[in-house]
Design brief:
single chain, 360 residues, alpha/beta, Rossmann fold, Dihydrodipicolinate Reductase, domain 2, 2 domains, 13 strands, globular
């Protein structure tokens, strides 16, 4: 199939995927639901997984060699959902084959490779996307809309906190027999989650100017170098605190945006959004009205969350939105949902958060 230089005008776009693990199922489910897109190939080092995935999603061909897939399937878009250590080489091969590329986070293991990938994408006029799926979850998009409309007032600070039991029995991060690939990255297991948190900070207050971090290990007998992280970010339009805990349970992931007119709190795992604002009138009465409104917000969000889960929804709703918008942008030749300079700035923030010289 012949491609134009910008992929515009292609009636049916051809997609392919490398790496058929858990997150790959979300990518494939989304692409399968897109009109005007056909899954031309899937690839995995495991013949069994590649064949089973192709059968499940009705893919016409499966491969165990990604170069053979790129040559034979001729995809317009390649999804890379393999362990991070392979992201760079696979993305470079896909770009060299003329494909647009969607890569799971982290984009690369080594930060200097980010610039190489972005330059290669620019030289070939290809779209390169790192998966910041939480950024496109409906509650986050709602708050970003309020920010752009000025309803939050001036953004003063952002708080991003995640607690995930990465040391639990069965966790791939805690497996002593098969060390998780991310353990060799800057920041180790926590570094695997930092792109998500950095993308949220960047969306609300822009590029970082300075960071300070504290890393610690509470579980002395675990194979993980760090299991607790705290950071402070000073950015263009405000400040942020960012934290990760493997000890604080139950698991959670929330974002709080503090403005001069309103405070927004998003529970990403539960999909809830609450807005706090002070009304005119006596302060105690205004606070009471605000708390009543907050209670109604929580009840409505809980009902929506329950209904969404019963209908098969998940915290990956943002991934489906990001993928759909990326394909639409490629087809129309317009700007993708995540610009290359945003990817560069988010990765620069991650690099600063994981740098030895910034730890205290």
């Amino acid at each position: 199939m012949e491609q134009s230089s910008d992929t515009c005008g292609i009636r049916t776009m051809r997609a392919a995927l490398i790496g058929t693990g858990q997150i790959a199922q979300q990518h494939l489910g989304c692409v399968s639901a897109l009109s005007g897109v056909t899954l031309a190939g899937v690839c995995d080092l495991s013949r069994t997984l590649a064949e089973a995935t192709a059968e499940r999603y009705g893919v016409s061909a499966w491969f165990t060699d990604h170069r053979e897939m790129l040559d034979k399937a001729r995809p317009d878009v390649v999804h890379i959902t393999t362990p991070p250590s392979s992201h760079f080489s696979l993305a470079m091969d896909a770009l060299a084959a003329g494909a647009h590329v969607i890569v799971e986070k982290p984009l690369t293991v080594f930060h200097d490779q980010v610039a190489v990938l972005l330059r290669a994408a620019n030289e070939r006029n290809r779209v390169l996307i790192e998966d910041y799926n939480y950024l496109y979850n409906p509650p986050i998009q709602t708050v970003l809309g309020l920010m752009r409309a000025g309803d939050l007032g001036e953004i003063l600070s952002v708080e991003v906190a995640m607690g995930v039991d990465i040391l639990a029995d069965g966790s791939p991060f805690a497996d002593r027999d098969v060390p998780h690939p991310c353990l060799a990255m800057p920041g180790g297991a926590i570094g695997d989650f930092l792109p998500h948190m950095a993308s949220l900070i960047h969306a609300f207050i822009g590029r970082h100017r300075m960071v300070r971090t504290h890393w610690s290990k509470q579980a002395a007998d675990s194979p993980i170098q760090f299991d607790e992280f705290r950071g402070i970010v000073v950015a263009e339009r405000g400040t942020a605190t960012v934290s990760f805990s493997a000890q604080s349970l139950p698991e959670m992931f929330w974002v709080r945006v503090n403005g001069t007119k309103m405070r927004a709190t998003i529970d990403i795992f539960d999909g809830t959004l609450t807005l706090n604002r002070l009304d005119e009138g006596p302060r105690p009465l205004a606070r009471l009205r605000d708390r009543l409104r907050e209670g109604r917000d929580i009840q409505r969000a809980a009902r929506r969350n329950l209904l969404g889960k019963l209908m098969g929804g998940s915290t990956y709703a943002g991934l489906w939105t990001l993928i759909a918008q990326t394909y639409a942008a490629i087809r129309s030749g317009t700007e993708p949902p995540v610009a290359k300079n945003e990817i560069e700035e988010i990765n620069d923030m991650v690099r600063a958060l994981t740098a030895e010289e910034f730890q205290f």
